[in-house]
Amino acid sequence: xxxxxxxxxxxxxxxxxxxxxxxxxxxxxxxxxxxxxxxxxxxxxxxxxxxxxxxxxxxxxxxxxxxxxxxxxxxxxxxxxxxxxxxxxxxxxxxxxxxxxxxxxxxxxxxxxxxxxxxxxxxxxxxxxxxxxxxxxxxxxxxxxxxxxxxxxxxxxxxxxxxxxxxxxxxxxxxxxxxxxxxxxxxxxxxxxxxxxxxxxxxxxxxxxxxxxxxxxxxxxxxxxxxxxxxxxxxxxxxxxxxxxxxx
Length: 248
Description:
Strand content: under 5%
Shape: globular
Distance between the termini: 40 Å
Structural class: mainly alpha
Number of strands: 0
Radius of gyration: 20 Å
Number of helices: 9
């Protein structure tokens, strides 16, 4: 007796995570090696930075993962939609499967970023360096792991989702409209940066513009709304899209 078949959404999720697994693993190996190398150079006094005993290095590490996920997101619809639909997967299931995959990858990236803070704190403590955060965040110390994870999960999801919107826009429309959609597709990432008021955006808003952060309860709801809108807009663009034949 054969086992129970997986739901199409889970099949899509499994396939995408399997397809991109070595890309993700390779990225993190190179990324961590670079940061370890920077730490070794600093510790050997080859690079001299008088402020290294006051501020952390890991706080600025999220820029590269966000751009990396944005690029991967652009590939999702053009590279995968036709194959799934030709094998009987509906567009609705495709959108849901991609959404679960984005959430899973964003969670993995957020866990990696979250783990970096206590590790860096341990290194600084062993060297008797006072560790200070350079910019505002949802968290105020490296021990608030839940808020660290939530902040980075939302940021990674929106950058990944913005890339997905860009790829869908170019797949659904001609290149002229695709360019316009690219500009609009970046709005969720910008909106999330503004909403969370974290990192450089938080420093700009609170120090220069004197804008106070939204209360946490409302912030969480608005952040989830942005994530939901990314999925909804992709579904609206894809629900009746014609499937294009691959030319390579």
